[in-house]
Specification:
Blueprint: H1 2-5, H2 8-12, H3 14-31, H4 36-41, H5 44-70, H6 75-85, H7 92-109, H8 113-125, H9 132-138, H10 141-147, H11 153-169, H12 181-192, H13 201-215, H14 219-232, H15 237-247, H16 251-264, H17 274-285, H18 291-295, H19 302-324, H20 329-347, H21 354-365, H22 368-376, H23 387-408, H24 434-437, H25 441-448, H26 456-475, H27 481-505, H28 510-520, H29 525-537, H30 544-563, H31 569-582, H32 584-597, H33 602-608, H34 614-628, H35 645-660, H36 666-677, H37 684-695, H38 705-711, H39 715-721, H40 731-743, H41 747-765, H42 771-795, H43 798-804, H44 808-813, H45 819-844, H46 850-872, H47 886-894, H48 897-900, H49 904-923, H50 929-967, H51 978-994, H52 998-1013, H53 1021-1030, H54 1033-1037, H55 1041-1063, H56 1065-1073, H57 1098-1122, H58 1125-1137, H59 1146-1166, H60 1168-1183, H61 1191-1194, H62 1221-1224, H63 1228-1253, H64 1271-1282, H65 1285-1294, H66 1301-1328, H67 1331-1352, H68 1356-1383, H69 1403-1416, H70 1423-1438, H71 1453-1481, H72 1486-1501, H73 1506-1512, H74 1522-1538, H75 1551-1560, H76 1562-1567, H77 1570-1584
Length: 1585
């Protein structure tokens, strides 16, 4: 604006025109001032205009002066102009002074000193224009000093202060001499008089006024005296407050007087009297003064309070750090010195905290509003940390909650001291209802915080109010749900912020802890655990006092835990109890950390927890769950193969603590459930421990036989004899566990999650984890499921169980529960239902006869199981039910060992134990009589219970067996084949269940035996046992560690049965002789004829058992040689389990021993766990050596020839009277070396004969479950025999046979049909025997040839006769089979070739599967080469064949014989022609020629030496020695590559050396052909077996 007022041109042309222009401007501005009379009448707009003009003239002068300061205008020029301007207005000097004032401030801030000098010179030049007084009033003292208007600026300032003080602060007082002392005396008397009468403040006030007027008293002084008297009579609020209110006119004056009084006590060691605080508080409460006005007069200042609070926190943290640090002794002395210095400083007492004193007074009189305002000015909990404040606030709370507490909080029978309400109307209104607590009580409690600990009585009242509210909340009918929920959240907040921290600061007050539990137990565990979490992790950091307490608790906990042992559990337990009443979270956290490191602390810690309160036990449960869920801890060890020790320790602690003490389980069970939902199975360890300890149900796969026997009895027998640890008194703890599961609906979810998690462990978690760990987790999951299911079955009532467990189809189809687990869960339900239905039926019809009871039981079973039969149909494809009925399937899965047999031995054993116990009690002189009596009563009661239970079980088993007897005819339908039936039975029933639990393993074996004993139609016992024993490699390899134990136990039970039958002919004849399960001809369904010729006789059964033992050995050796951890571990476990029944044969035992010894050597450093297993088994195996027998003792090597009539030939190598496979591997190791000799001839003749004999070759079934006995083998057999046909015919003419061919036809047919089976078995043996074994066979064979020759010399004649008889029967069989093939195309019959592989598939598919299996097999054996060749041949020959069941031939016996003779002659002629061609072609190969000659010799001489050869030549071990093993492993790769070569090369290699020797000894061998005849006999007799 100044730029507009004074343009720059004016300054530049100042002398010419600028000065005049400026003067004219000023004149205009000054003249525009209106007259005074106009001023009175001017409007508001005119006023604004005038002010604007005033500002304009100021701006013009300012601009002019500023030009001078800048140096644009000379000083004298400006002074002359200003002098002229002064005349324009009267107040111009004042305006100029204002301008100078502004410029003074501005130039004083500038850095350019020249401008400041110009300003000073300008003001100096204008001194004549502006009066000194005006300048002194408006300019800065320093400027005045520079102008010379004053001498010194400092003195001038002081003078101003004095003058201002005199003017504004000094009051004119009456001189005391003028005041009358008598007036003050009368005033004090007036105020101090007795106020109990009718004296009111109004009367006294009138008197005071009179005294002031009469004696010239100072009114302020009178007010001060009134306050003094009030202070002395602070109880007279009702008199003095109205008096002061009437007397005073200004609040500030009263505030100043009070402030002066407070200031008087603000000296060091000064103590402000409480009466003064009371007066101030009362005046504040009645609003006579303002808190803000008084607050400034009080000390200490707020910043110093904040600093003090921070200092306290720092000190507390330092104390905590010192307690947790390890301090060196030198540092300790320094610290002590520092502490002493601090204490000395503290001795100088600072002045009182007047703010806190006032706060206390306000609380005492009930002025909560002002008290709250003061507390808000301070750090949180700072005020309440002073005991006096906390107590005052507690007292106010007592008064406020009194009415509500009397209504809803007082326990029955309690009285309690009354708290009178405050008289003041301004005090908080007492709470009448829970809603009223929200107004002020909750707020007060929040300000009080942890310092409620100063008043345990109030603590108890608040807790009881909480309990009263929770009762109302639980009974509330959703009317005011929002209001009640709000109140609930308020109570939870109070619990978190006030009650729990206060409990921490209470000194081990167990009563308060129990009182608080009364409230806490009404909260759900989710709320409780959240509160505990806040308490443990956050509360202790909120206040310095709590920080100290936490450190002290940890220090004390360390002290106790260092000294805790089994011996001092009681005193240490008391110390732990005291510490836990106040600070359980901190104590338990430390204790759990110690237990995780040192698991030997578990027992003493558990015992020492008996002095805890209920709240502490609940906190302990939370702390355990928090420790388990710690995300920073790894649940696996560093090797990733085992569960961490800390988790195992915590799980063990869980089981012990939850069993011994009444702790709520819901939180822990829910935690495990949540972990399972998340797919984590580690924490199942906790559930396992809890169930084991609380219910006494153990998981023990390492059960003894006695325990296992006891586990098949009733509940009482299980408890007494079924477990390792006799866990007694589990009734209460198991009830608690059951209640927790049912109340929170966790029983079924846990079962289902565990059942699903078993597969989850493998398929979801398994990829990332070590195989060993996956196996352990799977076992843990499965074992826990079995244990948990057992607990539910034995503890839940029938109604509870049925209500919670859905039907099997729902379990499997909706919840995707595996079938074995689904039936495991449903089984108890069926048993319950059947028994309850049976009881109902018994009540309706009163008949006590046993037969009636059985009928009722069967009726009950039908009623209960009928829906189950319907529901299981959906579990499997419809094809399954063609072979086994749903009834059989459901019966198998629904029964248990309890239903099948009574363990009489176990019952007797336990009863005898009790008798011994009673005897010991009688003989014990130290036991008091009362205790003796109690113990004897207990033993007697147990004895009675056991005997009653045994009787009950016996009746039950009889009923079940009757029921099964009636059901059995409908069990196995066998619409396809018996073969397929057995497959389904094993696949769907036996194998899933035998690895489910140890008792189920026994059950499966017992059930198979029972089905056999019941003479069940269509059930082939032989086939079933053969399938179980024949190839266990895959089953063993796919088991986990515990499953391997159960599988071993199953095999042991099966072997036990077989061994019993094998041991004695009488037992065999009694239990198996006429049973349909031992029929060797598997006819069409509907006929299980009792023809004696169809039954397997005792001697052949012994051969079969030897075959099974051999198969087990072969599988075991294979597993041991794979090098795979799982294979080796599992087979060692299985072998250990079956040790009592296997090995029984010496050479098999020796072979195993060598392999196991090799494992011991290899694994000692690499895999110690395998080494330990192998060493354990090796030792046990050696101890069993005395019980092993040579092979010739295990089974006789002679075969009686039956002279019965001819019977029809079934498809496959099975003979009319005996199955081929029963003898096919009776002596498999002998056949291997013989097969080496024949291999050249076989390979040459196979290709030629295949095309010619395809249409005459019978179709055969698979021989051992691994491959098919195909047509090429029959062709080879024919060719071998045809080579020596002429010699045999000559012999037939010369010698008279013992019987006609017709008479011996059955025996011949048997031998003939058994030949392919024998060849296949020997071929298999060759395939699966390592190279070194073959070499050993060769050596043994050479060594024994001479001996055999001598022994067989005398039997040439009979062997020739047998050979002659055998030849035509064989030819006839071939022709007969070709005919029967056509007649049986449309029929289906249940047929099995060998017992080993009853799976009905096409031969090509079998051989393809066999090839795949062998490719996958990691067994480093040279047998693969021959295996591949054989399987290739099988593929070629069987590609166009299908599985066909042959019916019996329709020809009569006589016609058959004639046809057989013709066919035999034709085929013999053809074979001779082929033989001649082959000889010519292969003449150049001398080795082959030698082999052919040897073969012919064997064929000529027959099998006359069979008896002696069988008894004299013991079986060679099928296993190589150590050197041979190493050769085998080295040459395996080479031989595998050879496997692709044609079959001609199969007999090459190392065989040449042997043939060279034979060449050299040719004459000798021709003369002594006994050894070869021996072999030939072995071959035929083995087939016969």
């Amino acid at each position: 604006m100044a730029a507009l007022v004074v343009p720059a041109d004016w300054i530049r042309n100042w002398e010419k025109s600028g000065k005049n222009e400026f003067l004219q401007l000023c004149r205009n501005l000054a003249e525009s001032k209106p007259s005074d009379d106009v001023t009175l009448r001017e409007s508001s707009a005119a006023t604004l205009e005038r002010k604007q003009e005033h500002d304009d003239i100021q701006a013009a002068l300012y601009e002019l002066a500023w030009q001078v300061i800048k140096g644009n205008l000379k000083l004298d020029q400006a002074a002359s102009v200003l002098n002229d301007v002064m005349e324009f207005r009267e107040d111009m000097s004042s305006i100029l002074a204002d301008v100078f004032c502004i410029l003074d401030i501005e130039t004083g801030c500038l850095e350019e000193k020249n401008k400041r000098e110009h300003f000073t010179q300008l003001v100096g030049a204008c001194l004549v224009l502006v009066p000194d007084t005006v300048l002194k009033e408006r300019l800065d003292p320093e400027t005045l000093e520079s102008l010379g208007l004053i001498k010194q600026a400092q003195q001038f300032n002081q003078k101003i202060v004095k003058i201002k003080t005199k003017l504004f602060y000094k009051q004119q007082k009456f001189n005391l001499l003028r005041e009358e002392n008598e007036g003050y005396a009368k005033l004090i008397t007036e105020l101090g008089q007795d106020l109990s009468g009718n004296i009111t403040s109004r009367l006294v006030l009138e008197n005071i006024k009179s005294l002031i007027g009469c004696f010239n008293l100072d009114p302020n002084r009178v007010l001060d005296i009134i306050l003094e008297v009030y202070e002395c009579r602070s109880d007279q609020d009702e008199f003095f407050v109205p008096l002061i209110k009437s007397y005073m006119c200004e609040a500030q004056t009263l505030c100043h007087i009070l402030g002066f009084k407070f200031k008087f006590y603000q000296e060091p060691n000064g103590e402000t009297p409480s009466s003064l605080y009371h007066v101030a508080a009362a005046l504040l409460q009645h609003n006579l003064i303002e808190l803000g006005d008084l607050y400034v007069h009080l000390l200490p200042m707020d910043p110093s309070i904040l600093e003090e609070h921070k200092r306290e926190i720092t000190e507390a943290k330092q104390i905590a750090r010192k307690l947790t640090m390890v301090v060196v002794p030198s540092e300790k002395t320094e610290e002590k010195d520092k502490e002493k210095e601090k204490e000395e400083e503290k001795n100088e007492k600072p002045p009182d905290n007047q703010k806190l004193g006032l706060l206390e007074a306000l609380l005492k009189i009930g002025d909560w509003q002002h008290a709250q305002s003061i507390m808000d000015q301070m750090p949180s909990f700072y005020a309440a940390s002073h005991k006096s404040i906390a107590v005052a606030l507690c007292q106010l709370l007592h008064i406020t909650i009194e009415p509500l507490y009397r209504r809803a909080g007082v326990p029955k029978g309690a009285k309690g001291a009354l708290n009178r309400p405050l008289k003041s109307k301004q005090a908080p209104k007492p709470a009448e209802a829970f809603e009223d607590l929200r107004k002020e009580v909750f707020t007060m409690l929040c300000y009080l915080g942890p310092h409620l600990s100063h008043d345990p009585v109030l603590f108890a009242k608040i807790v009881r109010l909480g309990k009263g509210f929770m009762k109302e909340y639980q009974n509330d009918k959703q009317e005011d749900k929002d209001r009640m929920d709000t109140l609930l959240s308020c109570f939870l907040s109070i619990t978190d912020q006030v009650l729990l921290p206060s409990l921490t600061l209470m000194d081990c007050n167990a009563c308060m802890s129990e009182e608080l539990w009364g409230l806490f137990k009404m909260f759900p565990y989710q709320h409780r655990y959240r509160l505990y979490g806040q308490w443990k992790n956050e509360t202790y950091n909120s206040h310095p006092l709590l920080v100290k307490v936490k450190a002290q608790t940890v220090d004390r906990a360390k002290y106790i835990m260092k000294r805790l042992t089994k011996e001092n559990v009681k005193p240490s337990g008391r110390q732990i109890g005291k510490l836990s009443h106040s600070n359980p979270t901190i104590l338990f956290d430390y204790m759990l950390s110690q237990i995780q490191w040192y698991d030997n602390l578990i027992t003493p810690v558990v015992d020492s927890l008996k002095y805890l309160t209920s709240l502490n036990y609940d906190v302990l449960a939370y702390c355990i769950i928090e420790a388990l869920a710690n995300p920073e801890k790894e649940k696996m060890k560093h090797d990733d193969t085992t569960i961490s020790a800390w988790l195992q320790s915590l799980a063990s602690l869980c089981g012990s603590v939850f069993r011994k003490y009444p702790i709520e389980l819901a939180g822990l069970l829910q935690y495990v459930t949540n972990q399972l939902k998340a797919g984590k199975s580690f924490d199942l360890l906790i559930l396992k421990e809890v169930v084991q300890k609380m219910a006494g149900i153990e998981i023990a796969d390492e059960m003894t036989q006695e325990q296992l026997e006891a586990m098949t009895g009733g509940e009482q027998l299980k408890a007494e004899g079924g477990y390792f640890g006799q866990i007694r008194n589990t009734k209460k703890s198991s009830q608690r566990l059951k209640d927790a599961l049912l109340d929170h609906e966790l029983a079924l979810p846990l079962c289902l999650l565990m059942a699903q998690q078993r597969n989850g462990v493998v398929f979801l978690e398994g990829g990332e984890k070590h195989l060993k760990l996956v196996g352990k987790l799977y076992d843990q999951c499965h074992d826990t499921l079995v244990q948990f299911g057992g607990f539910l079955a034995s503890n839940l009532s029938t109604e509870d169980y049925i209500k919670r467990v859905p039907s099997v189809d729902i379990l499997c189809n909706q919840f995707h529960t595996p079938h074995d687990a689904a039936f495991f869960l449903s089984r108890p339900m069926y048993a319950h239902q059947i028994l309850s239905k049976y009881d109902e039926l018994k009540k309706t019809e009163k008949g006590n006869r046993q037969q009636q009871k059985v009928h009722k039981y069967i009726a009950a079973c039908d009623l209960v199981m009928a829906p189950v039969h319907d529901s299981v149909v959906s579990l499997h494809p419809p094809k399954v039910w063609d072979d086994i009925s749903p009834q059989f399937y459901a019966t198998f899965w629904s029964l248990t060992m309890y239903d099948l047999a009574v363990p009489h031995n176990a019952y007797n054993r336990e009863v005898n134990k009790l008798k011994v116990q009673m005897k010991a009690i009688d003989e014990n002189p130290e036991m008091p009589p009362n205790k003796k009596k109690k113990e004897k009563e207990r033993c007697t009661a147990l004895q009675d219970k056991l005997q009653e239970e045994e009787k009950k079980q016996l009746e039950h088993v009889q009923r079940v067996l009757q029921r099964l007897k009636l059901e059995k005819d409908n069990w196995l339908l066998a619409k396809s084949t018996k073969n397929e039936t057995i497959t389904k039975f094993l696949q769907l029933c036996i194998f899933p269940r035998c690895i489910f639990s140890a008792i189920d393993a026994v059950y499966c074996a017992r059930f198979v035996e029972l089905v056999h004993q019941q003479r069940t139609p269509n059930f082939c016992t032989l086939l079933c046992y053969d399938r179980v024993f024949s190839d266990i490699i895959y089953t063993v390899a796919s088991c986990t560690e515990n499953e391997a134990r159960r599988y071993g136990r199953f095999l042991c039970c099966m072997l036990d049965t077989v061994t019993r039958w094998h041991s004695d002919r009488a037992i065999y004849e009694k239990e198996c002789g006429n049973y349909p399960g031992f029929l060797t001809i598997l006819r069409a369904t509907g006929f299980d004829g009792g023809n004696k010729a169809d039954q397997l006789d005792y001697e052949n059964f012994r051969h079969v058992v030897h075959k099974w033992h051999y198969k087990l050995t072969k599988a075991s050796v294979h597993c041991l040689e794979t090098g795979e951890y799982t294979h080796i571990r599992n087979i060692l476990i299985v072998l250990t389990k079956i040790l009592l029944c296997y090995p029984k044969v010496l050479n098999l035992g020796q072979a195993l021993e060598r392999r196991v010894h090799k494992i011991c050597l290899e694994e000692k450093e690499k895999r110690p766990d395998l080494y330990a297993l192998a060493m354990g088994y090796s030792g046990q195996l050696k101890s069993r050596k005395p019980y092993m027998v040579p092979e010739n003792e295990f089974h006789h090597k002679e075969l009686p020839v039956r002279n019965t009539g001819p019977t029809t030939v079934q498809n496959g190598p099975g003979s009319a009277g005996k199955p081929a496979s029963t003898t096919s591997t009776g002596k498999p190791e002998e056949g291997a070396s013989e097969e080496n000799e024949k291999s050249k001839e076989k390979s040459q003749s196979a290709a030629k004969a295949a095309s010619k004999t395809n249409n005459t070759t019978p179709k055969v079934t698979t021989s051992n479950g691994n491959g098919a006995t195909n047509s090429t083998k029959l062709i080879k057999e024919k060719e071998d025999k045809d080579k020596s046909g002429k010699e045999k015919n000559k012999e037939k003419k010369e010698k008279t046979p013992a019987a006609t061919p017709e008479a011996k036809a059955p025996g011949k047919e048997k031998q003939k049909e058994e030949r392919p089976g024998k060849e296949e078995k020997t071929r298999e043996t060759k395939e699966k025997t390592p190279k070194s074994e073959k070499e050993k066979f060769k050596k043994d064979e050479k060594a024994s040839k001479d001996d055999k020759a001598k022994a067989s010399g005398g039997e040439l004649k009979s062997s020739a006769e047998k050979e002659r008889e055998k030849e035509p029967s064989k030819e006839r069989d071939v022709a007969k089979e070709a005919k029967t093939k056509e007649s049986s195309k449309g029929e289906k019959a249940a047929v099995a070739g060998s017992l080993k592989s009853p799976v009905p598939r096409s031969e090509s598919s079998e051989s393809e599967r066999e090839q795949k299996r062998r490719k996958l097999d990691t067994h480093p054996s040279p047998s693969h080469s021959s295996t591949v060749k054989d399987n290739l041949n099988e593929l070629k020959d069987s590609a166009t064949k299908h599985y066909t069941n042959h019916s019996t031939a329709t020809l009569s016996k006589s016609k058959e014989r004639e046809v057989d003779k013709k066919d035999m002659e034709k085929s013999r002629d053809r074979s001779r022609e082929r033989e001649k061609k082959e000889r010519k072609r292969d003449h150049s190969n001398s080795d082959r020629e030698v082999a052919q000659e040897l073969k012919r010799r064997k064929d000529e001489n027959g099998t006359s030496s069979s008896k002696h050869s069988k008894s004299e030549s013991p079986s060679n071990s099928p296993q190589p020695n150590e050197k041979e093993k190493s050769k085998s492993s080295k040459s395996s790769s080479k031989e595998k590559s050879d496997s692709a070569k044609p079959e001609k090369g199969s007999s090459g290699g190392k065989k040449e050396s042997r043939h060279d020797k034979e060449k050299a000894e040719k004459k000798e061998k021709r003369e002594s052909t006994g050894a070869k005849e021996d072999k030939k006999h072995h071959k035929s007799s083995d087939k016969h077996r």
